[in-house]
From TrEMBL, chains A, B:
Binding site for S-methyl-5'-thioadenosine: 31, 106, 137-138, 162
Short name of one Pfam family: Spermine_synth
Family annotation (InterPro entries): PABS, SAM-dependent_MTases_sf, Spermi_synthase, Spermidine_synt_N, Spermidine_synt_N_sf
Any Gene Ontology CC annotation: cytosol
Residue positions binding spermidine: 62, 86, 155-158
Name of the protein: Polyamine aminopropyltransferase
Chemical reaction(s) catalysed: S-adenosyl 3-(methylsulfanyl)propylamine + putrescine = S-methyl-5'-thioadenosine + spermidine + H(+)
Task performed by this protein: Catalyzes the irreversible transfer of a propylamine group from the amino donor S-adenosylmethioninamine (decarboxy-AdoMet) to putrescine (1,4-diaminobutane) to yield spermidine.
Protein's UniProt keywords contain DNA-binding: no
Record's subunit section: Homodimer or homotetramer.
Length: 275, 275
């Protein structure tokens, strides 16, 4: 018997993966959580029926949400991640030699537990001495900090359920206050093919708050449409002004100095969304 | 009743699209041909169970297989396409002001017929006076021409069935001879995530024949993994040496001067395939 997991990515399109086993399913306080083994992408974490991360392609998302900002900021010592309970962004952050502390604020402790148990390749850095893991509401945490972080990454789920507030202008204003005077934020902002309105709205909101706002792209096979966007708000540093020789050297599978620049080369239909 | 079209893109992963109707199915001399209406991507052409093109995302593939070479060559007067019976590459080629003649050599006349009937937005240029449409074997056509074309685009189906010979080193040598002394070839070369071996092999083969060989990428939602590669072999001109101000201006939805450069910024795991 062949077993396939099918995710409806929109009402009208889906991805379907052959699976070998379902390792874990759970209804947490916040969402439905599942861990399954797929043949194409390896082990996969699914929240509320949406693929969050897989062993085979997680490197793209986790490197790209992290290293662009880490290499734009000249001294990214104090970095935080909202969401991202799988630990992948944290794993990338502590690769950067300048980072002294990385704080993870995840609202759903069960995501952290499941990731540590079933996805150790991704969650491996959560016990690092530089890492502070907090099971808290990210919106509340941000509101309680001022002039504190160098970089804040919004590593959220899709803008439904617990993550809706992470796509709001009020939240971006709160992030602005929680950042130091030269701080940078990056948020994952969905697919240019399927979420055009969301990208336009978020870019406009962040542009109204931060002096420098930039959108960049990466290719992630298990995410809807395969093309994903990230929106950066920066108080001082422009990611396009970074010199190639200033990009820190550490092992990555997707990110490099050429990708740092190339990811900002937007196709016309994407650039149109930002006008 | 909901109807869904599911394509197994590999043995272990597929894309599934809600459809409203099947407009046409046919067994041609060379392959199974279908035209269906999908809700997410609009009308879709399917050959041997593989999505070839859709109304909503065809612009990416057709612009990117064409304009990178057209803007690398300073005088692309005589351009040919092997395969590409839907006419999308031809439509893009004749946008370039320098092109005097565009030749389409498609082995399966039924693809041209179905595209003209069901996909007029894509096939619209096939009756242009600059365009010469030939229902012939592309391999034979190339073998019969020498020092003739400025640009040859290999707009093939997947490397199974009738297209196998279009991925062979002998064919690339034949293309080299059919090109003028400063000619350029571009071939579609599948997904870096799913077809790593093919990309490595083709890049090595083309590098052994052409002095300049470059791989570039584009994001195409309906193609396996969503990330697609194109391999360019060039006798004289380097696509990375093109000056932004020399890129011809005409309407496109994906390609632009920034994308021309950014598409060559290869993630590490892709660059590794070319070593």
């Amino acid at each position: 018997m062949e077993l396939w997991y099918t995710e409806k990515q929109t009402e009208n399109v889906g991805i379907t993966c052959k699976i070998t086993q379902t390792l874990h399913t759970e209804k947490t306080e916040f969402q439905d959580l599942a861990v399954i083994d797929t043949l194409q992408f390896g082990r996969m974490l699914v929240l509320d029926g949406m693929v969050q991360t897989t062993i085979k392609d997680e490197f793209v998302y986790h490197e790209m949400i992290s290293h662009v900002a880490l290499n734009t900021h000249p001294n990214p010592a104090n970095v935080m991640v909202i969401g991202g309970g799988d630990g992948g962004a944290i794993r990338e952050i502590i690769k950067h030699p300048g980072v002294q502390k990385a704080t993870l604020v995840e609202i759903d402790g069960k995501v952290i537990e499941a990731s540590k148990k079933y996805l150790p390749e991704i969650a491996c850095a959560l016990d690092d001495p530089k890492v502070d893991v907090r099971v808290e509401d990210g919106i509340k945490h941000i509101a309680e900090h001022e002039n504190h972080y160098d970089i804040i990454l919004v590593d959220s789920t899709e803008p439904v359920g617990p993550a809706v507030g992470l796509f709001a202008a009020d939240f971006y204003r709160s992030i602005y206050r929680a950042l130091k005077e030269d701080g940078i934020m990056v948020a994952q902002t969905e697919s240019p093919f399927f979420n055009a309105d969301l990208i336009s709205r978020v870019f406009k909101d962040i542009s109204a708050i931060f002096p420098i706002t930039r959108l960049y792209l990466a290719s992630i096979p298990t995410y809807p449409s395969g093309l994903w966007s990230f929106t950066m708000g920066s108080k001082k540093y422009d990611p396009l002004a970074v010199k190639e020789e200033d990009i820190a050297q550490y092992p990555t599978k997707y990110y490099n100095a050429a990708v740092h620049k190339g990811a900002f080369a937007l196709p016309n239909f994407v650039a149109e969304l930002l006008k």
